[in-house]
Design brief:
Elements (H helix, E strand, L loop, with lengths): L4 H6 L10 E3 L4 E4 L4 E6 L2 E2 L7 E2 L2 H6 L1
Antiparallel strand pairs: 1-2, 2-3, 3-4, 3-5
Length: 63
């Protein structure tokens, strides 16, 4: 299930308040500034830092 595009336009990282990049393949919202990827489950972004995955060094420089 895809998240609502309007929702993706207004969401920001809860830590840095910067924009997020939608990674459709991994179903995550990525905050390069925070170095975190927030999961999307059943079309719902989970914006809790304790649920986020830490980006690898390669991912931090790649995106």
């Amino acid at each position: 299930m895809e998240p609502d595009p309007k929702l993706l336009d207004v969401l920001v990282c809860p830590i840095t308040k910067t924009t997020l990049v939608y990674d459709r393949e991994r179903q995550e919202l990525v905050s390069k500034a925070a170095g975190l990827a927030y999961p999307i489950r059943s079309g719902i972004p989970i914006m809790r830092p304790d649920e986020a995955r830490e980006l690898s060094e390669e991912e931090r420089t790649k995106r």
